[in-house]
């Protein structure tokens, strides 16, 4: 089968001889250590294991960090992926092969909960797995007799969704009957969003979401579904602080530019009351006016602090600037939920202490305090057409076009991209009726990129 493989030797001049190094580097995407290869189709290692043929597999910020070999905080280095692996943990697909399963059958359409726990690896259960907190498995860094890694997409034996097949245990599957590929591929990030929202205990009426990507939008949709009366403010930035500004070549080759007004409309359509854009100073001033909060300025100058600010901030950027802004926006006793891939930052800990703020991390999903499996709830929501996430997937590419896919995903909202996905062998094409709807609505933020929609000479051609 074919797979998009991350291999650092692709950009290592000293790997395998000079000639071989030059050949491999020529195949790499913009000096990225990736290429499409023919690999051996994995075989289910025991009872309960299945081979999944992906329909759609998403590209997320964690995938991009792995592909770009971004350094991870030293304290998390024990959890890094192996040097050579197949990414892809956001997957909707079809069971291709099953081995002594209880319920999963060949041909079943399924959503994949990618987290690997002790039992999946063939290890004795740790304390967290025994307690049901499998997403906090204490053996995440260990390998067992069956597989290794923290999740699908970072495991050498299991593989990942950027391929024509990978392995999971049926415990990691949720039926996808009645859910389209476009919605099904959002199950993993939507579960992440739901888990993040459930990390907050509501004590006020105003929430802020920092960010404009897929996770930010799914958090907005989740907040609106759980709290219909909540005032939701999104602080939008078309360029992530972790992503470079696009050059001229990228702007000309992008499917559509990132129109902020269209993006604002799209975010409001999924549940945000307000979408604001500007500097930290401007965001603090606008929030103060909206909340009728007092603006308190430190004696030595610098950004102000709000007295009577918002109840919660969901920070999907998790940069030094966004965290600093978040703690200044919060009212005393408020909550900061860190949802982004954060590292070591200097922040105003005095505000955490003096104002008794709560800081909570949210990086995964599992079984929530109400006893329900996060993916089970998300499956119900994705089956409900009123859950407004149909516009989150904006671009679709086959594996062979990984250059464009990774470039656009890296550019993000600056290129009009929200969620970029790879098409697998089980993908269903974009229906002509859906393409016609997109064409009739020029105010939509982006045009869905399907296999039959490609950018040629700066124009978008749909066939």
Gyration radius, rounded: 22 Å
Oligomer: single chain
Helical content band: 25-40%
Note the main sheet. 7 strands, mixed
Strand segment tally? 19
CATH architecture of the largest domain: Alpha-Beta Complex
Strand content: 15-25%
Whole-number count of domains: 2
CATH topology of the largest domain: Quinone Oxidoreductase, Chain A, domain 1
Distance between the termini: 28 Å
The CATH first-level class of the largest domain comes to: Alpha Beta
Principal-axis shape: globular
Description:
The protein has 463 residues and is of the alpha/beta class. Helix content is 27%, strand content 21%. It is built from 15 helices and 19 strands. The strands form 5 sheets. Strands 3, 4, 5, 6, 7, 16 and 17 form a 7-stranded mixed sheet that branches. Helix 6 (187-198) packs across helix 7 (214-226), helix 6 packs across helix 13 (374-382) and helix 10 runs parallel beside helix 11. Mean pLDDT is 82; it is low at 13-29, 238-256 and 430-463.
What is the structure about, briefly put?
The protein is an alpha/beta fold and 463 residues long.
List keywords for this structure.
single chain, 463 residues, alpha/beta, Quinone Oxidoreductase, Chain A, domain 1, seven-stranded mixed beta sheet, six-stranded parallel beta sheet
How do the strands and helices of this protein lay out in sequence?
Blueprint: E1 2-6, H1 18-27, E2 34-38, E3 49-59, H2 61-67, E4 91-98, E5 109-112, H3 118-121, H4 127-130, E6 166-169, E7 173-175, H5 181-184, H6 187-198, E8 206-210, H7 214-226, E9 231-235, H8 248-253, H9 260-269, E10 274-276, H10 280-291, E11 294-296, E12 305-307, E13 310-315, H11 320-329, E14 330-338, H12 349-354, E15 358-361, H13 374-382, E16 393-398, H14 402-411, E17 419-423, H15 432-440, E18 453-456, E19 459-462
Parallel strand pairs: 8-9, 8-13, 9-10, 13-14, 14-15, 16-17
Antiparallel strand pairs: 1-2, 3-4, 3-6, 3-17, 4-5, 5-7, 11-12, 18-19
């Amino acid at each position: 089968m074919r797979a998009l493989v991350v291999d650092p030797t692709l950009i290592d001049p000293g790997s395998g001889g000079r000639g071989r190094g030059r050949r491999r580097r020529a195949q790499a995407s913009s000096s990225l250590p990736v290429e499409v290869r023919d690999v051996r189709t994995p075989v289910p290692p025991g009872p309960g294991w299945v081979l999944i043929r992906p329909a759609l597999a998403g590209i997320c910020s964690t995938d991009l960090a792995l592909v770009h070999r971004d350094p991870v905080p030293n304290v998390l280095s024990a959890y890094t992926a192996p040097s050579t692996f197949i990414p892809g943990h956001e997957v909707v697909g079809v069971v291709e092969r099953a081995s002594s399963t209880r319920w999963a059958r060949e041909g079943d359409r399924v959503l994949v909960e990618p987290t690997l726990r002790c039992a999946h690896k063939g290890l004795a259960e740790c304390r967290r797995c025994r307690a049901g907190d499998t997403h906090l498995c204490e053996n995440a860094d260990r390998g067992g007799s069956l597989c290794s890694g923290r999740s699908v997409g970072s495991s050498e034996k299991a593989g990942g969704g950027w391929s024509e097949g990978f392995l999971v245990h049926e415990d990691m599957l949720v039926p996808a009957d009645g859910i389209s590929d476009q919605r099904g591929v959002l199950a993993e990030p939507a579960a992440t969003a739901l888990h993040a929202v459930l990390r907050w205990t509501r004590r006020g009426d105003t929430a802020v979401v920092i960010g404009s990507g897929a996770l930010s939008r799914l958090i907005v949709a989740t907040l609106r579904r759980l709290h219909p009366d909540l005032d939701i403010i999104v602080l939008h930035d078309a360029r992530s602080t972790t992503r470079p500004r696009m050059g001229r070549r990228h702007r000309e080759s992008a499917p559509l530019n990132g129109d902020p007004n269209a993006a604002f409309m799209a975010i409001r359509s999924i549940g945000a009351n307000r979408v604001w854009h500007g500097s930290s100073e401007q965001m603090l001033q606008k929030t103060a006016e909206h909340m009728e909060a007092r603006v308190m300025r430190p004696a030595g100058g610098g950004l102000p602090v709000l007295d009577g600010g918002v109840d919660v901030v969901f920070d999907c950027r998790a940069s030094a600037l966004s965290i600093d802004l978040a703690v200044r926006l919060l009212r005393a006793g408020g909550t900061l939920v860190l949802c982004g891939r954060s590292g070591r930052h200097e922040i105003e800990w005095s505000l955490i202490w003096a104002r008794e703020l709560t800081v909570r991390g949210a990086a995964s999903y599992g079984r929530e305090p109400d006893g329900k499996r996060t993916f089970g709830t998300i499956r119900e929501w994705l089956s409900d057409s009123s859950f407004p996430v149909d516009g989150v997937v904006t671009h679709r590419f086959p594996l062979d076009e990984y250059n464009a896919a990774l470039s656009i995903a890296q550019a993000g909202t600056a290129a009009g991209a929200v969620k970029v996905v790879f098409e697998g062998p089980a993908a269903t094409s974009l229906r002509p009726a859906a393409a016609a709807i997109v064409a009739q609505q020029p105010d939509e933020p982006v045009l869905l990129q399907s296999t039959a929609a490609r950018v040629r000479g700066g124009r978008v051609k749909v066939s």
